[in-house]
Give the backbone structure.
Amino acid sequence: MVSAFINPDRLEHAVKSVADTVREAAAHGDKFDFGHLLSHMKDSRDVELPFVHFQLPELPPMHIAGLTLDLSPTRHVFFLVVCAVLVAVVAIASARAYRKSLIPHGLPTLLEMMVIFIRDEVAFPTLGTAGMRYVPYLLTTFFYILVMNLTGLIPYGATATSNVMVTAGLAIVAFVMIQVSAIRAQGFVHYLAHLTGGVHWGLWVIMVPIEVLGLFTKPFALCIRLFANMTAGHVVVLSLIGLIFLFRSLAVAPISIPLALFIDLLELLVAVIQAYVFTMLTALFMGLGMQGEHEEEHAH
Amino acid sequence: MQPQAIAYLAAGLGAGMVILGAAFGIGKLAAAAMDASGRQPEVAPQVRTSMIISAALIEGVTFFALVICMLLAVK
């Protein structure tokens, strides 16, 4: 954008492209089509980068066990992989910097700050010393979700976490980790005993299904919370910008753009907070599961 | 009224009521946090952290309802 101001040719090009878009929107009849704007948010087969616009390959549907699965990659899958590679590369490179000197300069120190924050403020209070083995999982969750959320805010980036299936996948992994940590801390028999809730064996028939259902609500809440937070921000920004096209006049722009800017900054805050909340709640649930054993000891 | 019109109306009214509940809850939460920070400034950072976590949880529940409203409007 700054270069548009410095270079008059670029400025003319930018103005012309905006004018073309407005003209195109006006020429498309009376009804404004939100579908075009929303397509920036939804999953799609093609990926649009600054100078490259390519279609992702369409794999033939696979038939497994009676289901027909379409596993062709989409934009969200592409960004899933891109963010995963980014997190892995940056994290491994930063960790390597510590082999050369005890106090490196730059990015590794920033990452060290965040790692220590997660380890001491999130993991240690909830999990205790026995739970320190799960810190790598919590760190992975935090940085991965953070990078995915932030990718949606840069131009040409798509938020993978605004897809409910992506957050459902993250929630499933969290669910598995919560059960694993509970079983590891308490032993399988104790874990099953907690599912009964300590009532008389006659009531087990109704108690066990309710407890099992209760096991699923927490990761489900994690999933929906992350998904809805990410989607809602984008919907609001797109609606505000779409107001300009809806009213077909540039006079709406001075109201619409600052509001959209403000909501965008809010989205930045929400992206970081939601990554932190997901990680913290996962750690909390794991800690609660691990503490079940001590609870029972106190009851005796 | 056509069922689609009622669905849109319901989605709008629902979203409004959801926001009422959420804003009221988070407002009370923020007020309590301000009181606590004012009384004991040295625990202000911990209060702030708990406030953010509670606000995120309340907003999580808000978004459940908002997703239902979105489903009403879209389907």
